[in-house]
Amino acid sequence: MNPQNTRIESPPDWGNDALSSVSQILVGNEWATFVHTADWHKGLSDIFEVLTKCNTELISGVLQRSDQIARLLAITATNHWLAAARSAEAGHCLPVYATGRAATEMAMYAWYLTSDAAASERWGSKPPSTDAAGRRAWSREFSVSQIAQKLGKGSAAGAQWAKYLHQTAIDFGAHPNSEALFSNLSHQPIGNGKSLLSLTYIHADGDLFVATLKFAFEVGLFAMTLIGLAFPELRQTTGLSCSLERLTAELSHLVTTRREFSSSSGNE
Fold first, then answer.
1. What pLDDT digit, counting tens, does each position of 158-197 carry?
2. Model pTM?
3. Which of 14, 22, 52, 100 is the most buried (most CB within 10 A)?
4. How far apart are CA 30 and CA 39, in angstroms?
5. DSSP H helical segments within the chain, as ranges?
6. How far apart are CA 81 and CA 53, in angstroms?
7. For 163, what's the count of Cα atoms within 13 Å in the CB-facing half-sphere?
């Protein structure tokens, strides 16, 4: 990645069609988050910096390593998380939960395949559809609930965290369910028992925006935690352990500060 700050000029007619006009709003929102919600941006950026350091070591000689599948899954978790972080900063809230779910699951799979030496082979040998019993057993083993249960044997808090993030993602639309049906809509009573429903793709600064930033932040911390469990050597070589402790405290501070701000604003 080139860290140099290079100015990019918009091409002719950018923003004049349906898709690029929305893209321009999203980029503008990212800039606004960078300026006006700088502490949240700094935390997310620090998470990405640590994850990319981990990826640099994970990719080294990956094709010659026995744990290559787990390493590639961990790297993929970072890629999904990057999409979640960018969407969160842009106020494109709902896709954050789908990509956040993917990042969470990738990190869980990476951990599981390092915790069981034979799991990688089983994971890569999914029974054919003609073997119904074998496929059911395979699906049970490589389900989120089953992996969380096995994670819980060594870390009850980690298992609870995994279930919380996964369920939160589902409830906000990462899987079709009733809770997510109206996530794209805003509701305004207009009298006489009538309501005005508006379709919302991009959310302004408010409760959902901040909750989504928090979700993205937590998914990043979760990915860091499971990568550290799966590849313990990275805890020291990349500064993972120190960064995880610092960023966990930073998230707690950000949430407390936001809560205090919302409370004081509500009393004005």
1. 999 999 999 999 998 888 877 777 877 877 888 888 888 8
2. 0.91
3. 100
4. 13
5. 18-36, 38-59, 68-89, 93-115, 119-123, 132-141, 144-152, 156-169, 207-230, 234-237, 240-266
6. 15
7. 14
